[in-house]
Amino acid sequence: MMDAWPRPVRERRPGITSGRGGNSNVAGRPKTRDRILGSALALFNRYGFAKVTTARIASEVGISEGNLWYHFRTKRDLVVRHWEQLAESLSERMSAGTEPETVLDDFITYNRRTYREMWNFRYLYRDRAEYGHLDDELEQRLREEVVVKGHAQLETFIRNMIAAGHMKAKDAEIRGLTVNVWLVIRYWLDYLHESRGITAIEPSHIRAGMEQHLSLFLPYLTPGAKAYLAARATVDLPDEFVPKSHVEEPVAVEAGDSREMR
Questions:
Q1: 62-79 pLDDT tens trace
Q2: Whole-structure pTM value
Q3: Three-state DSSP class for 91?
Q4: CA 175 to CA 160: how far, in whole Å?
Q5: Distance between CA atoms of 74 and 80, rounded to whole angstroms?
Q6: Is residue 154 within 8 Å of residue 178, measured between CB atoms?
Q7: Distance (Å, rounded) from C-alpha 152 to C-alpha 164?
Q8: Full set of structural domains in the chain with CATH
Q9: 34, 161, 214, 244: which could join 167 in a potential S-S bond, CB 3.0 to 4.6 Å?
Q10: Cα dihedral sign, 221-226-228-229
């Protein structure tokens, strides 16, 4: 069973920009650096990168603005570290393998983790126009470790679904579907911002992104695979995240839908 959303973000290693470690506060209490990162993430997510000042972040943490500058000299340093945290989560997810025998369940896990990450770091997806270009080294790392590997993982899912008899698609369709799914994942919150002026992201917006993502597969999936994904894709999520298409009763599916659906 998955943890309730959103999952707390944990600091794993020093950031690449400040070069300064966190303070060792009282036992069991997060370090100042970690508290800054967590508070900044929550504020950026809620109010937007451009509307949150370093003074506001310092006040939220309960430290002076000078103390905050000791750890992060600018808001962009915070953005870089948040992207590093997200990249670590993405890399962990992309390292998970999948086989034709388990591909539908593996894809469900992939989908749920993808949109959990989007929820936890939603300002990174939504506010790119506000915080701008990252440093070249990090941009290159994200292309290599996230974009390239992400496309490869999506294509592996699709080909395993085909191998298991859960969907039918030609090579050109596989490539197109891979790109379209990636575009929805990466730019869904950008789309909501630009097309509808939505900046206060709610769970329902993440749910809509999940629905849009899954809808791209519908023309290619067998009826049994569609029912299987609909019945299981949102199990254990809070009610507000459950898509309207959620099916309460589980259904059985085998490769090629050889078993009658119940």
A1: 999 999 999 999 999 999
A2: 0.74
A3: helix
A4: 14
A5: 10
A6: yes
A7: 18
A8: 12-73 (1.10.10.60), 77-257 (1.10.357.10)
A9: 161
A10: positive
